[in-house]
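Researcher: Batch entry, complex prediction.
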Amino acid sequence: MVTSELNLNFRTWLLDQPEGKTLLRCYQCGRCTSACPVADIEPSFNPRLFLQKILLSDELIAAEQLVWDCLTCEQCEVHCPEHVKIPHILILAKVRGLMTGNVPAAALDRARNITTIGRSLLVSPPMLKTREKMGLPDLGTPPMDMIVEMLADIGIVSRLDKVESNFGGNEDE
Amino acid sequence: MSKKHTYTYFPGCMIPYRLPHFELTMREVLKKLNVELETTPDHSCCPEPTTFTGVDFEAWVTIAARNVAVSEALGNDTVAMCSGCFHTLAVANHMVHEDTELKDRINKRLKKSGLEVTGTHTVKNLLHVLHNDIGIEAIQKQVSNPLKQLKIAPHYGCHLVRPLEATNMDHADNPQWMDEIIRATGAEVAEFEDKMACCGAPIMPGDEQTSLTITSKHLKNIKASGADAIVVVCPTCYTQMETQQGKVEALSETEFNIPVLYLGELLALSMGLTETVTENQRRYHRVKLTELLEKIGGA
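Model: Structure tokens for the complex:
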């Protein structure tokens, strides 16, 4: 395993959060990996090993495309005898890798839609017509000015302006 | 007529703007069951829990808590029909309830819009409403066309059920509520291996091959049970197992040809609302329902 320099930043940031703190309960039994449907078909996806890497302050996991192979199905957490918040820890690894571009293009598209129109997908005029034909009510549009203002201290909008995916991946169907 | 229930309906994005036949059939069925749904334009995308969380978790939980706060101000319990929306709202609500620092941080952000999240609001999914609030007996009373000829595989999916401390569902590995609703329509419940398997959809944006392999394993297990159709609650599971079924078949070199129904569609078929299903089947079902409809005498 190639480890660059020892970097405690990610580990410290993670342990500062209530869900991240659960990492310290991990004793590497591996039940997470045996319960994981992705590990079952893709052995390089190994939740136990991810936890070990973070415990040992290996920051590199945040830049690995593999973290985006987590289904967030939570089978690992259900089977963990110590209730380590494994899916949440992998989510924090993804967040940590965002600015390095380790994010699927479709995930960025959705995030940009959500922070501009308040929907994860574009709402087309023909779809609005279809709804009308079906007799379904007009649902209106979310108050985006208010939502964007609310997010100001988090800085997501400016981050989404800057980040580019070096990942590729599939378009949303 | 069963007792009247009123909810704040959280519409989300996928059901109203991608798969409106979900909303249509669900609304018609709920009308029969004396349920009223109220909506507000103040709700935004939940936001979806499979990729946005990994882009910016703090923004995810803040927008989610805002949506809960919008509901709180209206008073009635919230029902989210989409499993992703339900999961997001329920988890954020639970996190706010458990973590005072997080609650304070979010309420500071909400202050300008006059909203407040307390962590005490009740967020429900369709199964809570149908199984717990309305009840199996009241559903059975509305079944005019029992689907005795059908064997149905219940696909619960992940986000509807886990984590239990936030979802308030009955069981993480072997939930029963949808099984009971299926039996109430007169249909038989198909038993298949790995009932709580993931549909595979969440990793489509990053790894299509692995995603579809997971789907094909699940469809093989269901097909082996002899089920006539799969029933889902979640629009993302539907997209993966129905809309993408052709792709799954090509990848795994296996023909499945198994229809997928939304739970609202199954109930509509059993309650004599067949037209709400057949009117839209060509547009929203790639796997045709012809055989299934013939079996229940409604083609």
